């Protein structure tokens, strides 16, 4: 079980603590804590300079019943998190991947879901053996090598959760277990976390009946759901859970371009962490904005390298940019090749910022600096 968070007077410090008191530990928590402890210890012992990224990924569910049949969910498939984890591994980080169960995973994401079904990549040879079809050989070899490298060097730990409560318990434990990693720890909070939940004491035990049976629902066919806010845990993470000197990167998701930058700036100001990466639902695969205390910096996939996206709206690219900087011209020729993943641009830039943060925090003797 995770240790309690206390301030210097020994009393509990935040709204998040109430939340933890009122909700039971997830069943998997102690097993996950042992796995994470072992993983962190292994990297501390084998490479004193190894950086470890906690990548959170996917949606969180909000159960409506204790014996859960129905739940509230959100859109996130975990593409951002799974893709980013691969680029973190490529950049030399070890990664603890805290993900919504059954959302996309690093490496296997290339061959899952109906758009990329692994069976479509296979063929049968004349002697009845199953093979990878010729045209997919080189990409599959590349992905397989990267996967095997991560696996054989114990660089990737996969930890699943389902509900928002499980997510919060797991994140708190991981942050506390990361203390010995200090400024080499990086938190990359890409999961789409619910802001609302039903407290346990108001939650039905059994399946809510559609007619007549639901407690408090009378014979009505309407279902009225009364949700409480979940305390924003980002401040608690920054102030109390995460190792001092570690780098915390959160995401801000909006749908209205006029709000994105100001909301991301507010979030940075309120939670006092290192970086907010802002994204719009409709353009998130092609552009993001890095918000630090002094800067609004847009990262965009060059036009000719933008992959097609069902949910994307190409005309919205640039609309949230408060500086209205003109798009960078495309690289020579502008030939459409394999679509570029924006995480291929985000993670190297983040690593560069992390280099600077580490250097500065070390030269300050571990003291926190402002951006
Ligand atoms: O998975 P994909 O389909 O690829 O989509 C990726 C993504 C759009 C989900 C991802 O890029 C992203 O933006 N993730 C964060 C979404 C989100 O929760 O945004 P928000 O604006 O609601 O929350 C902002 C921050 O507050 C988040 O860092 C979150 O961790 C934090 N938060 C949220 C809820 C809560 N109760 N407490 C918090 O501290």
TrEMBL record:
Question: Could you list the residue ranges that cross the membrane?
Answer: none
Which Gene Ontology terms cover its molecular function?
A: ligase activity
Disordered: annotated span: 1-29
Provide ranges: composition bias, Basic and acidic residues.
Answer: 1-11
The record's keywords, sorted A to Z, are:
Ligase
Which segments constitute the DNA/pantothenate metabolism flavoprotein C-terminal domain? 178-284
Classify the source by domain of life: Eukaryota
Signal peptide span: none
Q: Which GO terms describe its biological process?
A: coenzyme A biosynthetic process
Q: Does the keyword Ligase apply?
A: yes
Q: Secreted: is it a keyword of this entry? A: no
Q: Which family does it belong to?
A: Belongs to the PPC synthetase family.
Q: What is this protein called?
A: Phosphopantothenate--cysteine ligase CAB2
